[in-house]
Every structure is written in structure tokens, then in C-alpha cells.
Amino acid sequence: IHDDIQDQDVERRHQPTVWSIWGVPKALVAGDTMQSVGDVCLLNTARHGVLPQTILRISSILTDSYLEMIQGQCLDLGFESSTTITSADYLQMIAFKTGALIRSGMEIGALLATDDPAAFQAFSRFGNCVGQAFQIRDDYLGIWGDSSLMGKSAGNDIRRRKKSFPIVYAFEKAVGQNRDDLLRIYAQEEIDDNDVSRVLVILEEVGAREESQSLTETSAEEALEAISLVSLPTWARTEAEGLVDFLARRQY
């Protein structure tokens, strides 16, 4: 909910966003409420036999991930006005942002399922890698995705001057006229259709599409490698493999 407000997205998955219907003040309250509902659900796990010390540790994991996600979101917003971001900067940002979100979920699941520290660490790394694969694929779709499946306009990330991975990579690799055009376009208050078309050409010329796909696939492979030595039932490993494959290849 908060992400849609900050990105000014009026539609998500072909549905109007909360803020576009009810306004920003009510949407902010709704987003805050969802966090509180999650906290209540955590406390209610005591009714199902979860020990108090486990609940406390889960709460600590969640709080740490909240702070990391806020830090990542602040970096992401700050990147929009910068043209000197490196791929390393970008990967650190998504480790804070999307990585923390998915990693915390995996850590909590592992903590509830086993007391094996090695398994906990394996799923923590799995979550980080899945988060990276998910976010880079999301960046890819934000530029080259099918708008009929995405529920929002293709190229929207370019119009918003969002420094997604393909754009960061292009700024790193572009030279000559390509770099001059990128600097000119991203210095403007508004980016029109002609500018979007020019950016798309530059992305192709520097290989940003291929690099995005390659990094997504590498992250997906590293995710599966992270849990390769964990003892899992066949159905659970199949589910994990299916999840990673979907997130790395999804079209929406």
C-alpha cells in the first residue's frame, strides 16, 4: 500500500490501488494497520504452542527486517535523482529492501520448523537470493513486461526515472552519445514517449536486457544451491524449486 503511494501507481494487477480510491491519508492508515494485524497474528501463535522465546526471536527478526526495508526504500527513492549509482549500490539496496522481506519470511519458517542452525542459515541465504531474483525480474518487467499482464503501462519505470537494474547497468556501460542522451533524458522533469524509445534503444545496445536475465537466473541458481544440503521432503523441495522458477521467469 505504501509502495503504491510513493510510486504514484494508480493500478496494480489490473485493480485500482488503495490510495487512488481512498486518498493518501486513509491509505497510509491502512498500510500501518496491516503491520499491526501481522503483529497480532504473531502474538496469537502462542495459542498454537509456539514458545514465548520463539515468538520474541521472530519479533526481533521482523523488526530488523522492517528497518532494513525502510533503509532500502529510502535508498531506492534517493537513487531516482542520481546518475552515479553502481550495480553494487543497486544490489545492496535490494538486499535491504526485497531481500530483507523474503529472507525474514524464510528465517521465520525455518525457526518454527527446526532448531538446526545450519538449516536456519541455509534458508536465510535462500531468502536473500530469491529476493534478488524477484527484484531484478520485477525491474525487467517494469521495462519490457507485457502491460496486459502487468496491469500497468510498459516502460512506466523509465517515465518515473526509476533507477532499476537495467537503467543502472546502462549508466555504467553507456559511452559517447548513448551516455550523453541518458544524462540529458534523466535530467528532465518529464520523460516523453520519444525519450522512452531512445532509452529502450540504449538498453538494447549496452546489453541491459541480457544482463538482467542472466543475473536473475544466477540468483535463482544460488537460491537452490543454498538449500541443496538441507534435508527436505521431496514435496517441499519440489515446492521450493517451483517457487524459484516462477519468480525468476514470471510474466506479471
TrEMBL record:
- What GO biological process, any one, is recorded here? isoprenoid biosynthetic process
Which Pfam families is this protein grouped with?
polyprenyl_synt
Matching CDD domains = Trans_IPPS_HT
What keywords were assigned to this record?
Magnesium, Metal-binding
- Which sequence ranges are marked TM in the entry? none
One GO MF annotation is: prenyltransferase activity
Q: Which PANTHER family match?
A: GERANYLGERANYL DIPHOSPHATE SYNTHASE, GERANYLGERANYL PYROPHOSPHATE SYNTHASE
Could you tell me what this protein is called? Answer: Polyprenyl synthetase
